[in-house]
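Bumping my old thread because nobody answered last time. Still need a sequence for this structure:
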């Protein structure tokens, strides 16, 4: 057992839930500068359906902005399993579902006009100066439905 008392644990869990809610909202509303503030500078992210290798936060931010700008995304997180490891570290698994609609004429991930997916986010967190931040994030999908963008033949 770690040295975190019950009240501290409950407060940390609520703070991490708010962090994840902001992550989803800021991705969906394309608030890229705000989104970046949710991660530590050395955060590592892995989204195997788009890149098989883990990427640093700067590379992730460039990729997500390029992929989503002009489109519409809808992300939902459910049933968080949050484990507070210490006063300043935690980990969680979130069930998730997303829908992403890419702009007409701009094929998105895997050449899609839209995708619908479900799976789990596996995350670690660090608390710095009283604020919880993402340290790592990995998305494992159980299902990914891809509607291909129409192909124009000339």
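Sorry it took so long. Here it is:
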């Amino acid at each position: 057992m770690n040295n975190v008392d019950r009240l501290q644990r409950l407060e940390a869990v609520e703070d991490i839930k708010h962090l994840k809610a902001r992550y989803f909202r800021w991705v969906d509303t394309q608030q890229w500068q705000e989104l970046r503030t949710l991660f530590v500078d050395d955060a590592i992210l892995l989204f195997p359906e788009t890149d098989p290798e883990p990427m640093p936060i700067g590379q992730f931010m460039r990729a997500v902005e390029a992929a989503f700008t002009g489109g519409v995304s809808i992300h939902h997180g459910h049933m968080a399993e949050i484990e507070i490891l210490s006063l300043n570290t935690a980990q969680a698994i979130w069930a998730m579902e997303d829908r992403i609609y890419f702009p007409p004429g701009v094929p998105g991930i895997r050449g899609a006009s839209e995708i619908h997916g479900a799976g789990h986010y596996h995350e670690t967190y660090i608390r710095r100066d009283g604020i919880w931040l993402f340290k790592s994030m990995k998305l494992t999908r159980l299902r990914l439905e891809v509607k291909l963008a129409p192909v124009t033949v000339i």
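The longest helix spans residues 6-28. Let me know if any region looks off to you.
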